[in-house]
Write a structure and sequence with these properties.
- It is a single chain.
- It is built from 14 helices and 2 strands; from the N terminus they run H-H-H-H-E-E-H-H-H-H-H-H-H-H-H-H.
- The longest helix is centred in the middle third of the chain and has 23 residues.
- The chain has one domain.
- The chain has 269 residues and is mostly helical.
- The two termini are 33 Å apart.
């Protein structure tokens, strides 16, 4: 009998990376902070790599892994503040409310993709996974009591917070940079149309519309076929392949930690 894979370690969850990023950017305080204080437009893959190193460090790493990842994220967040001028919302990357939103998009996306590809978790395992994801926020500035108490409370929070999402030209330009991926390896650029399609399939319709992403009944049918196919093929993959990204990003974090900065040494993408 195969040993079950930790749901937080499933590679399939990475199918939702684009969704999580676009939901984060659609919160104006996050989107403008990224647009004004990062190289996202030139190298959006760097944000993805940094996020995944942090996620795997918190959910599956050692105490040293978490310490390295926390320190890196805090240093990156420290200068990201400003706005409240010319119609730009005030933002501060250390704001617990914004960090809660970022952590919430990661959890909501993970559980959505898991359900599409592997089915819904039993209630006890779903509750345990939910509590583990709280650490993505509380490892930084989010007070433990700010993470919704249970999954029902989370759903209410997420629906209310989603009502504050707004995508303007500045934020949409960040999404366009993600799809262009001009500094990403060639194989990433080749896969970007598929990534964009999967992201559109997973986004809430109102957010997808704000990003100007075309979606028709035909696309919906294609997405259904994709999820069905993955639901058949993916569970047959060996556990070592299904958990490869976790091992890769933890190794990348550790190499970078020795060099003084996660990801500081060039590694294969």
């Amino acid at each position: 009998m195969r040993r079950p894979v930790d749901p937080a370690s499933e590679a399939a969850i990475l199918l939702g990376a684009g969704r999580a990023i676009l939901l984060q950017l659609a919160r104006p305080e996050v989107g403008y902070g990224v647009a004004r204080h990062s190289a996202f437009a030139e190298n959006p893959m760097a944000r993805l790599h940094g996020t995944l190193m942090y996620v795997y460090a918190v959910l599956a790493g050692t105490p040293d892994d978490r310490r390295i990842a926390q320190g890196f994220v805090r240093r990156m967040h420290a200068p990201v503040r400003g706005g409240d001028d010319g119609g730009v919302p005030a933002y501060d990357a250390r704001d617990p409310e914004l960090q809660l939103w970022v952590a919430a998009t990661l959890y909501d996306t993970a559980i959505l993709v898991h359900g599409r590809v592997l089915g819904h978790l039993p209630e006890d395992r779903a509750d345990a996974l939910y509590q583990r994801y709280a650490a993505l926020g509380t490892a930084l500035e989010v007070p433990p009591e700010a993470w919704p108490a249970d999954r029902a409370a989370f759903r209410r929070y997420f629906e209310e917070a989603s009502g504050r999402l707004r995508v303007d030209a500045t934020i949409r330009a960040q999404a366009d940079a993600l799809w262009a991926a001009t500094k990403a390896p060639r194989w990433v650029r080749v896969l970007m149309p598929l990534n964009r399609f999967v992201t559109a399939a997973l986004l809430p319709p109102e957010v997808r519309e704000q990003y100007g992403m075309r979606w028709t009944i035909r696309e919906e049918r294609r997405a259904d076929l994709l999820w069905r196919g993955l639901g058949v093929v993916y569970p047959l993959l060996p556990a070592r392949l299904r958990t490869w990204p976790e091992r890769y990003y933890l190794a990348r974090l550790r190499r970078g930690g020795k060099a003084g900065r996660p990801g500081a040494r060039r590694t294969p993408h």
